[in-house]
């Protein structure tokens, strides 16, 4: 029997796979469920195997025995109620690769195939305003968004009511394969978003008008109110200062007269 199985495994050619490769992204330290449709497994077969990268076997199942967890995978695999599906626990970067469910009958058939990519969560980002150049009818603002291994700059031009981003939304793929994006929201906040398939972090500026304070035009309500407050504060300040100067001046004159 054993020899027969070996021969069968050697000479059997791979039957065309019934399934396409399913991409799965998992955060480092988390689990992944590798599902097999039980209806695809006939009552009679030689062996069912979960295989990693076409080489290492994780689990084997024979028709009349319990699933057998193999080698290194002891303690790292949870069997499910569905007999052929498994959960791989606490994934690390080295677990990235292709997991294949192989069924051997008189031919070898692939029942399911998953391309698992294990990713670390992305690092935090910081968004800084590098320069502001206001003019009478517009304001240019340049920002830089930095992560640990990458940075991206972008310039925004804002008129009375709207802002536009030079060259459109900016994005860049970082060395670690994540993406760094800079764009603005309709409320004129600028956002930097650092993301990969399993996580994202972001930083945001205040409303662009906070950085372009010279502009006091009607339009976007949010910046009008800021401008009104600034104007009032500035005017009141000016009045107080001028009054103080005049008062001091008057006092001195009065003193001299005496
Ligand atoms: C803002 O940038 C645009 C395009 O680069 C330029 O034409 C304009 O003069 C700039 N405005 C200011 C106030 O610097
Ligand atoms: C950042 O990007 C990710 C992936 O594209 C997205 O799911 C997430 O909602 C974005 N976050 C923000 C604040 O836009
Ligand atoms: C702009 O909108 C975003 C998302 O809706 C919000 O988190 C942010 O605080 C807003 N910014 C301002 C300046 O209102």
UniProtKB/TrEMBL annotation:
On the tree of life, the source organism's domain of life is Eukaryota
Membrane spanning residue stretches: 232-251
Compartments reported by the entry: Membrane
Show which residues constitute the signal peptide: 1-20
Question: What is any one of the record's Gene Ontology cellular component terms?
Answer: membrane
Concerning InterPro entries, the annotation shows:
CD2/SLAM_rcpt, Ig-like_dom_sf, Ig-like_fold
Write the record's keywords in alphabetical order, separated by commas: Glycoprotein, Membrane, Signal, Transmembrane, Transmembrane helix
> What's this protein's name?
Uncharacterized protein LOC114449285
Identify the gene encoding this protein: LOC114449285
